[in-house]
TrEMBL record, chain B:
PROSITE patterns: VOC (PS51819)
Domain VOC, residue spans: 2-127
Matching InterPro entries: Glyas_Bleomycin-R_OHBP_Dase, Glyas_Fos-R_dOase_dom, VOC_core
PANTHER family in the record: GLYOXALASE/BLEOMYCIN RESISTANCE PROTEIN/DIOXYGENASE, GLYOXALASE_BLEOMYCIN RESISTANCE PROTEIN_DIOXYGENASE
Protein name: VOC domain-containing protein
Species the sequence originates in: Naasia aerilata
Length: 97, 130
C-alpha cells in the first residue's frame, strides 16, 4: 500500500497504468509503441524500469503466453489509494452537486 | 549492388514453408537441398520478382537466445507491408494465426504483430493513402 503512492506519483508510470487500463496484457514492445503513438516516447529500458516499480507495488504482474511476456494491470491494488482519498475528501453525497 | 534476399531464422524449415506459403500467402521460390538443410526462399504474393525471404535454420547456438529475447519482449523480427492491416488481421485470425498485438494506429501507419510459429514475431504494416 505504501509503495503504491510513489509508484503512481510519476507521470510516466501513470501513463503506463492508463495504457494497461485501456488494453490489459500488453508486451513491452506494445507499451513502447503506444507511448510513442501518444507522443510520450520513452526508451525500452526506461519503460522496463518503470514497469519494475509498478510490479514491486503490486499494480502490475507478468504472465507468459507462449514465449511472450505480457504485463497485467491489477486495478484493485489502487483500492487503498481510493480509500485514503475518500477518507480525506469524501465524495459528495448523492443528490448534492 | 542490390538487396535480393533477406532472412528470418526458423526452428523448422518445412513448418516455416507451410506457414509462410499456406497461411501468410507467400509463394515458393527456391528450394535447393544443402546437406542437412535447404536453401529455401519464398517470394511476396504482391511482387514475386522482388526480394526473396530466406527461411534460414536457427541452429547456430547464438540465434535462439537472440530470437527468444525478442519474442519475450514482443519485438517483431521483420515487418511486411500490406494494403489493409485490419483486413489481414481478420483473415489471418480466421486461419488460426495468433496475434500478440492487435491493430494500433500511429498517424498514417497501422501495425499488428503475429506469431509465425517458427520462433519469430512478424509485424504487418500499412500506410494510409493520403
Amino acid at each position: 500500500m505504501e509503495e503504491v503512492f510513489p509508484a503512481i506519483a510519476d507521470p510516466a508510470r501513470r501513463r503506463l497504468v492508463e495504457a494497461l487500463a485501456e488494453r490489459n496484457d500488453q508486451t513491452l514492445f506494445e507499451l513502447c509503441v503506444r507511448l510513442l503513438g501518444s507522443g510520450h516516447s520513452m526508451s525500452r529500458q526506461a519503460v522496463a524500469k518503470h514497469l519494475g516499480v509498478l510490479k514491486a507495488a503490486g499494480l502490475v504482474s507478468t504472465t507468459v503466453q507462449g514465449r511472450t511476456t505480457l504485463h497485467h494491470l491489477d486495478p484493485t491494488a489502487l483500492g487503498g489509494v481510493r480509500d485514503w482519498v475518500e477518507r480525506i475528501a469524501p465524495p459528495a453525497e448523492e443528490g448534492q452537486q | 549492388m542490390r538487396i535480393t534476399t533477406t532472412s528470418v531464422f526458423v526452428d523448422d524449415q518445412q513448418k516455416a514453408l507451410e506457414f509462410y506459403t499456406g497461411v501468410l500467402g507467400f509463394l515458393p521460390k527456391n528450394d535447393i537441398p544443402l546437406g542437412e538443410h535447404r536453401w529455401l526462399t519464398v517470394a511476396a504474393p504482391d511482387g514475386p520478382e522482388g526480394v526473396e525471404l530466406l527461411l534460414e535454420p536457427n541452429d547456430h547456438p547464438a540465434v535462439r537466445p537472440f530470437t527468444e529475447a525478442l519474442v519475450a519482449d514482443g519485438i517483431p523480427f521483420a515487418s511486411f507491408g500490406v494494403d489493409d492491416v485490419a483486413a489481414e488481421y481478420e483473415r489471418l485470425q480466421a486461419l488460426g494465426v495468433s496475434f500478440v498485438q492487435p491493430p494500433i494506429e500511429m498517424g498514417p501507419v497501422t501495425t499488428v504483430i503475429l506469431d509465425d510459429t517458427c520462433g519469430n514475431l512478424i509485424q504487418l504494416a500499412s500506410i494510409a493513402a493520403g
